[in-house]
Amino acid sequence: MITLGEYIIEKQNDFPEASGELSSLLGAIRLAAKVVNREINKAGIADIIGTTGVENVQGEVQQKMDLYANDKFKTALEARGEVCGIASEEEDEFIAFDDKRGCNSKYVVLMDPLDGSSNIDVNVSVGTIFSIYKRISPLGAPVILDDFLQPGDQQVAAGYVIYGSSTMLVYTTGNGVHGFTCDPSLGVFYLSHENMTIPEDGQIYSVNEGNYLKFPLGVKKYLKYCQEIDSATNRPYTSRYIGSLVSDFHRNLLKGGIYMYPSTASAPKGKLRLLYECNPMAFLMEQAGGKASDGEKRIMEIVPTELHQRVPFFCGSNNMVDDVQLMMKKHTEV
Ligand SMILES: O=P(O)(O)OC[C@H]1O[C@](O)(COP(=O)(O)O)[C@@H](O)[C@@H]1O
Ligand SMILES: [Mg+2]
Ligand SMILES: [Mg+2]
After folding, report:
1. Which of 143, 271, 283, 334 is the most exposed place for a label (fewest CB within 10 A)?
2. d(CA 199, CA 54)
3. Domain 204-330, architecture per CATH
4. Which of 67, 88, 118, 206 to mutate to test the pocket of ligand 1 (most atoms within 8 A of CB)?
5. 169, pLDDT greater than 70
6. Are strands 238-239 and 291-293 parallel, antiparallel or unpaired?
7. How many CA atoms lie within 13 A of 76 on its CB side?
8. More confident residue, 322 or 41
9. How far is the CA of 128 from the centre of ligand 3 (A)?
10. Was 117 annotated as part of a binding site?
11. Which architecture does CATH list for 4-193?
12. How far apart are the first and last CA of the chain?
């Protein structure tokens, strides 16, 4: 079995011009993932359950695990010296690593250190999401906000870690999507899912139906379509919603399906954050042969304007994303 470290190096050799910086950066993410994984696995007995009582820039009360994960990834990325700055769900502003090495690094990282925070205390799978870009500011200069506000189609790599019944790291550098499973006895990630692809069609829909009455008419129509009885089209589809984007995404990636976090009357831009939730998942989904949209256009074409901006999110099997987009177009409310 090939390890994640070996695979990264092997793939790097496919690019003679590669300098090894991205490989080293991915190594730092792998290290932090192991540290966070060890803590999550003993969440019930470690002083890591519960909230900090502090509200983050999202207006959400931070969980202790949000901060723990944020700290571990930040420390690992800064220590590795391949990153000139990071942006995180748990940090109001971007953080510049402006020591000598940092300044001369060409990558910025955007991350959701702990995804699915509402599931930490109830032993349901959670994750970490990361997105990597080359900076646009010159090497040696201070990192700037524009280095982070790049459209998703400029990502050089993206991925997630899922802390579930097993722990996996799934990533892409634009050459397919590859999954690695952690052997807990050794703390080593081994290649277990090479070239992951999503089926064109699926029979699973993932959405918080508790918001049904607040959804746009087109989304309501699509949910009714999913629930209609029609064996010729394998309907009704199955409703599955874990409440952790990473976990719902991972299941749908393997089995086919669609994850939706639409806009609602109370949250016209939806809930999920473009830069460190939707863009990285969109890059992975497109690399796996699926689609990711805000209900109208490709997520990865959106030009970001704010670090923590939110967008409606529809992501999954091609035909299912096409269907919901069509229904939203057909039932646009004036
Ligand atoms: O509880 P809701 O409104 O359905 O929201 C669940 C969604 O919010 C999230 O928890 C947001 O992510 P964070 O936990 O990182 O804030 C997603 O993982 C999940 O899909
Ligand atoms: Mg999240
Ligand atoms: Mg989070």
Report:
1. 334
2. 41
3. 3-Layer(aba) Sandwich (3.40)
4. 118
5. yes
6. unpaired
7. 22
8. 322
9. 7
10. yes
11. 2-Layer Sandwich (3.30)
12. 56
Q: Classify strands 204-206 and 258-261 as parallel, antiparallel or unpaired.
A: parallel
Report the residue count for the chain: 334
- Order of strands, sheet of 258-261, starting from the edge strand that comes earlier in the sequence: 238-239, 204-206, 258-261, 313-316, 291-293
Judged against a pLDDT cut of 90, whether residue 98 lies above it is answered with: no
Rounded CA separation 83/224 (Å): 46
pLDDT tier, 332 (very low <50, low <70, confident <90, very high otherwise) = confident
Give CA 296 to chain center in angstroms: 20
Q: Dihedrals φ, ψ of 186, to 5°?
A: -110, -20
Which ligand is located closest to the Cα atom of residue 67?
3
**Residues in CB range of 232: below 8 A, 6 or more apart:** none
Model ipTM? 0.99
Which residues line the pocket of ligand 1, CB cutoff 6 A? 89, 112, 115-118, 208, 243-245, 271
